[in-house]
Every structure is written in structure tokens, then in C-alpha cells.
Write a structure and sequence with these properties.
It contains 14 helices and 9 strands. It has 354 residues and is of the alpha/beta class. The protein has 2 domains: 169 residues, Periplasmic binding protein-like II (D-Maltodextrin-Binding Protein, domain 2, 3-Layer(aba) Sandwich); 150 residues, 3-Layer(aba) Sandwich (D-Maltodextrin-Binding Protein, domain 2). Strands 1, 2, 3, 4, 5, 6, 7, 8 and 9 form a 9-stranded mixed beta sheet that branches. α2 links the parallel β1 and β2. The longest helix is centred in the C-terminal third of the chain and has 19 residues.
Length: 354
């Protein structure tokens, strides 16, 4: 699958497109409540503000519409999914995953999308496999502590590695997907040359930063680091940075070579409520549901016709309006991650150990 970079960036920043008229079986987000009222689904994502947003945008409205009850858990853990499916004891039902982890389990750990799931409103370039529903476009970029640098802030992604001119702690999520891309972009790899990821080069970058690199275990940890003020720079998820700014963090952002990827929502095999799983995926695939999430947490929708109403203070953290600063956008390559997920995560674990 060849990704259209301009199209994907348009999806990331989709705030000004008109809402298309709903049509087809999934149009308008209506789910057939017959046979699923009273079912329970356990929804899993990476937690913190993302879980709060999912509950407000998706879980509560779907529950009200259909009578399906929800429990939640976090963080997403593909290894836990594998263990429960292989043991025949599935206790999670729907999970938000990075594409690499999801694609590897399509058909074995995750159900293929049924005919009940209408993905016609989703940007087709984002449909990485036959199982998941693309849900959120996440942008990472260099975020810096404005109070620390004053009138001489970082202006390039490469400044992430310049610990002499810009001393202080560098923060990033302890996660290979997105983390590896950030290290390579900071080391000067051009967006067009990002894939295949050079794992050895990324390891040299990580080792070179040494104790200046601070790995946080969760996106909640990213928020805590930003809001504490105890950091110099962060290779950050911008949606979460927007919330941290609202909580008082004094933040600036360098848009150069901002990196965008998208999560997928998967129905885990072995669920006791398979129809409810598919109906929920269908609900989330609509422009209305996607817009509702963006209104809760400023990540872009995967449906180009979505028209979220985002306050200006949050909208500034979306890529819309920053296209010239970004230049050539850096976009996730799902084919590479599908083939290299295990090796990439193993390499990340090794290079960040100790």
C-alpha cells in the first residue's frame, strides 16, 4: 500500500472540510441494538486523557444508543492479548493499537471486519489491514520548555540532540513506534528517507544522549513531565501536549519534520459479545464519532468529512495551518511496521536499557 503523503496530512488536519451526507449501512453512526443490548465490552487504550476522551466521545454515546455496557482498562498490551487469546480466556474485547502490532495479529488475534462495519467514510489510504478501523491521527513533534530557553529557543528538530547549546532533560515515551522515528529525524534523516528505519543509527542516537534522555512509561507520564516543568525538550504527542498546556505547562513547539501516524481499533478474538464488537467498530468509523473524539482530545480524525468543533487553543496543536513549517510530513509506513515490529521493539528495548 502506497501512502499519499499530502492526503494523509490533510486527514491529520481535517477541520475545514464539509460533512458529507450520510449514506450506506454505517452512515450516521446508527448501530442495530437488536441482540446487543445488555452485552458488555471491555475497551482498552493507552489510558489517561485518551481513555477519558474515548469514554466521552464513543463509549457513553454508544452505550446510550444501544444498551451495551462498557468496562475499561489500560494500557494497550499486545502481549497480553496474545496470552489471553491463546489461553482461550479473552477478557478484553476492543483495543486501540499501533498499526504494527495490530497488523501482525490480523486474523489470528483480531477479528476481520464484518459486513456490519462500514469504512467508506475513512481515508482509504489508512486502511492498513482487513481487521482494524483507523481511529485517530497522532502527530509527534519537538516540544520545548519556553520558560527554560526564553528568547533563544530551539528552532530545529536537530536541536533535540544539541545538549551543549540546549542543556537539560529530553523526554519521550518509552515506545518503539514513534520513538524510533523521532530519534532518526533528530539525527538528520530526511522525511522521505525515514523508511526503512535504520535501527543501528537510532541506537547510536539513544546512546549518545545517555542520561539526558528520560523515557516515560506512559502518556500520562509525558503529561506529568511537561506539567512539572522539569524538562528541556520532549519528542511529544501533541494532543497530550495541548492538554498539558491547559494545565499550566509553558510550551513551545517546533513543527519541522513533525511525524504522524494513526492508531487502529481492533476486535479481539474470543469475545463473548462479537456482534457488539463489530457494531461498536462501525460506530467509531463514522465522521460524527471521529469528530467527537477530536473535540475531546486534539488528534485529527481519519474521516476526511469530519468537522470537529475545536477551540482555538487546542486547534493550534493540530497540523492545520503549519504545513509550511512542517515541510515534507513524516508519515508512518504500515508495511514496514507489519514486517518489522518484533525486531524494532526488541531493538528499542536493547538500546534504551540501562
Amino acid at each position: 500500500m502506497h501512502l499519499n503523503r499530502k492526503l494523509a496530512l490533510g486527514v491529520v488536519t481535517s477541520l475545514s472540510l464539509f460533512l458529507a451526507t450520510a449514506c450506506g449501512s454505517g452512515g450516521g453512526g446508527g448501530a442495530d441494538a437488536d441482540g446487543i443490548s445488555g452485552d458488555q465490552l471491555v475497551f482498552v487504550n493507552f489510558g489517561s486523557d485518551g481513555l477519558t476522551a474515548a469514554k466521552a466521545a464513543w463509549l457513553d454515546p454508544f452505550a446510550k444508543k444501544t444498551g451495551v455496557r462498557f468496562a475499561t482498562d489500560s494500557p494497550s498490551d499486545p502481549a497480553k492479548v496474545k496470552a489471553m487469546v491463546e489461553a482461550g480466556n479473552t477478557t478484553w474485547d476492543v483495543i486501540d493499537l499501533d498499526i504494527g502490532s495490530g497488523m501482525k495479529g490480523c486474523g489470528t488475534l483480531y477479528e476481520k471486519r464484518s459486513k456490519a462495519v462500514d469504512v467508506s467514510k475513512i481515508d482509504p489510504s489508512l486502511l492498513a489491514d482487513d481487521c482494524g478501523v483507523p481511529i485517530i491521527m497522532q502527530t509527534l513533534a519537538l516540544v520545548y520548555n519556553k520558560a527554560k530557553f526564553g528568547d533563544d529557543p530551539p528552532t530545529s528538530i536537530k536541536d533535540f540532540l544539541d545538549t551543549k547549546r540546549f542543556p537539560g532533560k529530553r523526554v519521550t515515551l518509552n515506545y518503539a513506534a514513534g520513538g524510533l522515528e523521532g530519534m532518526l529525524l533528530a539525527d538528520g534523516v530526511a522525511s522521505k528517507d525515514l523508511y526503512p528505519l535504520d535501527l543501528d543509527r537510532a541506537a547510536k542516537v539513544v546512546k549518545g544522549l545517555g542520561s539526558d534522555l528520560s523515557l516515560v512509561p506512559s502518556l500520562a507520564g509525558q503529561s506529568e513531565a511537561l506539567e512539572s516543568g522539569d524538562f528541556a525538550m520532549c519528542w511529544c504527542y501533541l494532543g497530550r501536549a495541548a492538554i498539558s498546556e491547559e494545565h499550566g505547562a509553558d510550551l513551545g513547539v517546533v513543527w519541522e519534520n513533525a511525524y504522524s501516524g494513526w492508531d487502529m481499533l481492533y476486535a479481539i478474538k474470543g469475545s463473548k459479545s462479537p456482534k457488539a464488537q463489530q457494531e461498536f467498530l462501525n460506530y467509531v468509523a463514522t465522521p460524527e464519532a471521529q469528530a467527537a473524539f477530536t473535540e475531546q482530545l486534539p488528534y485529527g480524525p481519519t474521516t476526511p468529512s469530519a468537522t470537529p468543533d475545536v477551540p482555538a487553543g487546542r486547534a493550534k496543536w493540530l497540523a492545520k495551518g503549519h504545513e509550511d513549517e512542517i515541510g515534507t510530513p513524516s508519515l508512518l509506513d504500515p508495511r514496514w511496521w507489519d514486517k518489522n515490529t518484533d525486531a524494532a521493539f526488541a531493538a528499542w528495548t536493547e538500546m534504551t536499557a540501562g
